[in-house]
């Protein structure tokens, strides 16, 4: 289990901040940012990984460069009598590569999905012929993204303490 943010020291916070901003930072660059020796940084980063603070490393790929010109946010409801099978529904959701994020939410819907598609027709086909055919899905409502204002970014890390 990861320790609480309040228990992290300033060096851990600097390392997390730096890695979020520059995921390919070398150990030397990390040591310069944190004012620690490279071996100390290496050990701290490995510990942060082991404790679950760092989930992994990945390149941020522009969806449009892959021909994925449509981003939609899809609200999904499940049939009330299907709650006993909710884990099977979630397993099915994980299998769709078009769904790049999924959250359970409060309010009028049960899930919020972020979906990518090549165009509106392929989005419609995905929703109608694939997603709505998953057992337990009661209905969906989609909102198409017109413009991305802020790209996914790093989490706020308080460097003051």
**Fold-level CATH name of the largest domain:** Alpha-Beta Plaits
Unreliable spans: none
CATH class of the largest domain: Alpha Beta
User: Treating each run of at least 4 consecutive H or I residues as one helix, how many helices?
Assistant: 5
Task: Give structural notes.
There is one protein chain. This protein is 34% helix and 19% strand. The two termini are 22 Å apart. A four-stranded antiparallel beta sheet has the order 2-3-1-4. Helix 2 (27-34) packs across helix 3 (38-50). It is of the alpha+beta class. Strand 2 and strand 3 form a beta hairpin. It is elongated. The chain has helices at 10-21, 27-34, 38-50, 86-95, 120-130; strands at residues 70-78, 99-104, 111-117, 137-144. The protein has two domains: 5-50, Arc Repressor Mutant, subunit A, CATH 1.10.10; 63-144, Lrp/AsnC effector binding domain/regulation of amino acid metabolism (RAM) domain (Alpha-Beta Plaits).
Key terms for this structure?
alpha+beta, 4 strands, 2 domains, Arc Repressor Mutant, subunit A, 161 residues, Alpha-Beta Plaits
In short:
With 161 residues, the chain is α+β, with helices and mostly antiparallel strands.
What layout of secondary structure does this protein have?
Layout: H1 10-21, H2 27-34, H3 38-50, E1 70-78, H4 86-95, E2 99-104, E3 111-117, H5 120-130, E4 137-144
Antiparallel strand pairs: 1-3, 1-4, 2-3
């Amino acid at each position: 289990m990861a320790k609480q943010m309040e228990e992290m020291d300033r060096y851990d916070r600097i390392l997390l901040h730096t890695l979020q901003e520059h995921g390919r930072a070398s150990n030397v660059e990390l040591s310069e940012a944190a004012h620690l020796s490279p071996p100390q940084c290496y050990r701290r980063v490995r510990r942060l990984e082991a404790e679950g603070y760092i989930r992994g490393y990945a390149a941020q790929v522009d969806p449009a460069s892959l021909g994925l010109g449509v981003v939609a946010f899809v609200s999904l409801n499940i049939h009330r009598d299907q709650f006993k099978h909710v884990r099977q529904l979630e397993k099915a959701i994980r299998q769709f590569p078009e769904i790049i994020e999924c959250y359970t939410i409060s309010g009028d819907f049960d899930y919020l999905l972020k979906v990518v598609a090549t165009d509106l027709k392929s989005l419609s086909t995905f929703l109608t012929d694939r997603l709505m055919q998953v057992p337990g899905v009661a209905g969906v409502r989609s909102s198409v993204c017109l413009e991305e204002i802020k790209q996914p970014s790093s989490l706020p890390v308080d460097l003051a303490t």
